[in-house]
Amino acid sequence: MSEAQVLGDPVERGDEILTPEALAFLAGLHEAFAARRDELLQARSKRREEARTTGKLDFLPETKEIREGDWQVAEAPPALRDRRVEITGPTDRKMTINALNSGAKVWLADLEDANTPHWANVVSGQVNLYDAVRETITLESGGKSYALKDDVEHATIVVRPRGWHLDERGLSFGGRQAVGALVDFGLHFFHNAQELLNRGKGPYFYLPKMESHLEARLWNDVFTHAEKTLGIEHGTVRATVLIETIPAAFEMEEILYELREHASGLNAGRWDYLFSVIKYFRDAGEKFVLPDRNSVTMTAPFMRAYTELLVRTCHKRGAFAIGGMAAFIPNRKDPEVTAAALDKVRADKSREAGDGFDGSWVAHPGMVDICREEFDKVLGDKPNQLDRTRDEVSVTADQLLDAASTPGGATAAGLRAAVDVGIRYIASWLSGNGAAAIHNLMEDAATAEISRSQVWQWVRNGTQLDTGDKVTAELVRGVLAEVRGELAAEIKPELLEPAVELFEQVALADEFPDFLTLPAYERIK
Ligand SMILES: CC(=O)SCCNC(=O)CCNC(=O)[C@H](O)C(C)(C)COP(=O)(O)OP(=O)(O)OC[C@H]1O[C@@H](n2cnc3c(N)ncnc32)[C@H](O)[C@@H]1OP(=O)(O)O
Ligand SMILES: O=CC(=O)O
Predict the structure, then answer these.
(1) Is residue 258 in a domain?
(2) How many domains does the chain have?
(3) Pocket of ligand 1 (CB under 6 A)
(4) Does residue 394 sit in the same domain as residue 245?
(5) What is the pLDDT of residue 52?
(6) Which residues form the active site (predicted)?
(7) Is there a contact between 476 and 459 (Cβ–Cβ < 8 Å)?
(8) Which of 148, 190, 278, 446 suits a disulfide with 271, CB 3.0-4.6 Å?
(9) What percent of the chain shows pLDDT beyond 70?
């Protein structure tokens, strides 16, 4: 087996996580699965090229039997039967404690879009998960003592590892960089799977950014291998898959089918989904050009088609349908902003509960009650609404791809906001914070991806703004220069300058970079 080499700097308590046994377990995962990961990433480009040339995607003819077959996913374990409110957040120590105490049923412990994968964050996130699972996690910070409360039910931990595309420079196996997803999954599983089972929970995961059922098959094989290696019963791992890429929307059934012994549901990851629609069809013509990011809502016809199909697919197969993130967050200093955010989140969760979702996401502890209240109204004493099978729903490929009917337009204010948010977010990411409050919205990698890919698409299509200006690279550079001047008073030059350069690269390069976090990762030391 390839030998593990730890290349990242030492991290406090890292020796408890990067033990020889844990590294050997990761080496086994890499030996078995890294090459297949590489092949599947290559397959992504081939499929995208087909969509670019045809401007189309469709349900797969070769998997029709699966879509029409009679099968169900495994029954949910007790800890995942009631998911009416899920809080998401990075695994820093304070957020971990606050999330577990928040009153949410589930905590999505985010090693992905809300986390900058600095080696220190990668390892300390695992230290925090280790302590969280054992309920020993405490912190002294800002004159406050943090610990798990005795009088609330602690949220069930569901870990989101990085997507398949990201490598990890802090570790190598046989001289090749580790696969980020296998590191995140493997360390949590190795240290905590048995401990979680002893406590009546289990190793539960959220799987991000998949583009096909073959990628789901790979995850399923990883789970089976991990269970076998550690002597844990097959089917103990439970995974909720984020449907957050446009090709995956055409394979919801197949993804559940591949993971059926390990699946617990699908989530409508709306932000990455929007990013994916733009990215996939960025050069397929005007009909895929979307209006300003913040004006595309969940009631746009193509977004509605996606969520309706998701609920229908899940409940047909006995899987949970989990709603997405309304990005509005409260602001302690501004009651008006807070009141408006609460109203918007309430409306969003009310719509989702009415549509048949079994629960949904919030980004902030201040939103937990609102989400719970809206789901309580629909669920009452029932833990979920798997029985609402939504048989009347039927969604076509054209409906999923109908970006053209989205109301709204591209505006100069929208362009400026995209540049401003993009730069602010990248500066935050580079500093080690993968999630940030920007203009009273939660921003993470997914939301920032929309901003920069939208700019790229508008330039490529020469989109006309409300001012009559056509979006060109020159126009965007002008906006960039103005925004950079404004932000100089707020962001240190050592973060602002690389953030501006990176934004320019990911928004204006001739060749569209697949993920902004790839060139950003190259920049971190
Ligand atoms: C599109 C997607 O992929 S969504 C999923 C990925 N994104 C995320 O998970 C982002 C989750 N949200 C966050 O990270 C945060 O809410 C932020 C960064 C947006 C804002 O955080 P802050 O600036 O700290 O907000 P604010 O000052 O209002 O926080 C108030 C308190 O709530 C805590 N808090 C805020 N958000 C969270 C959270 N998601 N989980 C746990 N605690 C939280 C803060 O730690 C703070 O605690 P304290 O009073 O003990 O100091
Ligand atoms: O990951 C979730 C999303 O909305 O993107």
Answers:
(1) yes
(2) 2
(3) 87-90, 94-95, 98-99, 110, 113-114, 271, 325, 329-330, 332, 363-365, 435-437, 442, 444, 446-447
(4) yes
(5) 87
(6) 160 (proton acceptor), 444 (proton donor)
(7) yes
(8) 446
(9) 100
Domain annotation covers residue 312: yes
Residue nearest to atom 16 of ligand 1 (CA): 364
- Helical residues (DSSP H) of 134-179, grouped into ranges: none
pLDDT bracket for residue 524 (50, 70, 90)? confident
Residues 316 and 451 in one domain: no
Q: Which of 343, 364, 398 is the last residue of a domain?
A: 398
The arithmetic mean of pLDDT across residues 361-379, rounded, is 98
Q: Do residues 460 and 367 both lie within one domain?
A: no
Nearest CA to ligand 2 atom 1: 269
Residues 428, 386 within the same domain: no
Same domain (yes/no): 279, 377: yes
- How crowded is residue 190: how many other Cβ atoms within 10 Å of its Cβ? 23
Pairing of strands 106-110, 85-90: parallel
Pocket-testing residue among 110, 111, 113, 279, ligand 2, by greatest number of atoms within 8 A of Cβ = 113
Tokens 């103990």 correspond to what residue? 236
Ligand nearest to the CA of 444: 1
| pLDDT band for position 53 (cuts 50, 70, 90) | confident
- For 273-324, what is each residue's pLDDT tens digit? 999 999 999 999 899 999 999 999 999 999 999 999 999 999 999 999 999 9
| Final residue of a structural domain among 398, 428, 449 | 398
Q: Which atom of ligand 1 is nearest to the CA of 94?
A: 45
Rounded alpha-carbon distances, angstroms, from residue 373 to 149, 336, 346: 22, 21, 9
Mean pLDDT of the chain: 97
Q: Angle between the 335-355 and 368-379 helix axes, to the nearest 10 degrees?
A: 30
Domain that holds residue 201: 4-398
Inside any domain, residue 403: no
CATH number at 507 reads 1.20.1220.12
Q: Is 444 one of the catalytic residues? A: yes
DSSP 163: P
- Residue 405 within a domain: no
| Residue 82 a catalytic site member | no
Across 333-448, the runs of DSSP E, i.e. the strands, are: 359-362, 436-438, 441-443
The percentage of residues in the chain with a pLDDT greater than 90, rounded to a whole number, is 97
Residue type at 381 in one-letter notation: D
Q: What is the pLDDT of residues 207-258, one digit of tens each?
A: 999 999 999 999 999 999 999 999 999 999 999 999 999 999 999 999 999 9
Q: Which atom of ligand 1 is nearest to the CA of 208?
A: 3
Q: What is the pLDDT of residue 525?
A: 72
